Write the structure tokens for this entry.
Amino acid sequence: MSAPIPFNNLAIQWREIAAEANADIAELFVNSAFSHGRYVEAFEHDVADWLDTPHAIAVNSGTSALHLAMLAAGIGPGDEVLVPAHTFIATIWGVLYVGATPVLCDVEEATCNIDVADAERRISARTAAIIPVHLYGQPADLGAVMALAARHGLKVVEDNAQSIGAAWSGRMCGTHGLMGCFSFYPGKNLGAAGEGGMVVTADDEVAARLSRLRSHGETQRYLHAEIGYNYRMDGIQGIILRHKLRRLHAWTERRRQLAARYRAALQFLPLRVPEIRHQDHVWHLYVIRTDARDALRAHLQADDIATGLHYPVPNHRQPCLVHLPLDPAGYPVADVWASQGLSLPLFYGMTDAEVDRVGASIGRFFGRN
């Protein structure tokens, strides 16, 4: 009997970095560099160099990154921010935390990224910013986003929580707007041993404020220039992430190989495989679409194959967001993705044979050999 196929297996990554990381962790305990400190600063330097951006400010989660980015962008009560209706809710938390109003936009049918034409028709005199989400590992249409922002004087904050390493027109995603926000939640392509996040920017003043905000608003020890937050990254996360970052390119290339193998196995079945609009897709998730999503998921579970749903309840249907000024016409494309999307297992360390087994199981579900 074949072993179960998990949705992810983070132990494979740990085994690859364990020897090096354990030595640094032991040193961390000797140095007591537990909160921020030298290991986090080294990781910030490496990320800034890797992304070719002047400033990388580490924080304790991707959600904190989005919150601080809104503050540093000067977004607040009375402002509106364009966000996609289909994204993890943390994108919207950052807007709400500063007292601004998220304005939901529908998504592209092909990619599930923000539909820029739909976003433009929702612009009002109060619109101050747009948050394009590079969902599932594929860049949003940054050419259209940046042109829209230029036409209407909007600030661009990229939500790059799922797409570290993806690029648009030769520049890394997260470096095109005023700021880019990253998540290092364990299951991400670059995942911590717990929580972690980052904001990157080329603006010196924005970087200085982000650094201040994440550490109680301090300009120097015990001198607080403004209301701040305890959003610092732990030293141990800096160690883990730094070792993983050195391998991220190779790990991403393996994800691309697995995604190509899925496509070859599934492309002639009666379902929608992901459409690749940009060659820099980094495949955080491999999301297929079918009207038979729930039945297929149950079938795969019976075959000991784990799957995920990202995300079955779009944001315009979330109970906590019913107070937003929602479009009475709805967000039909977001609803389709929410009802049809099924995330297949795809992770560094997954084997070709495991992909083939998933593909064969799906083929049997649809009556194909």
Residues 11-245 form a domain with the Aspartate Aminotransferase; domain 2 fold (CATH 3.40.640.10). The chain is about 40% helix and 15% strand. Residues 28 and 247 are 22 Å apart (CA to CA). The chain has a mean pLDDT of 97.
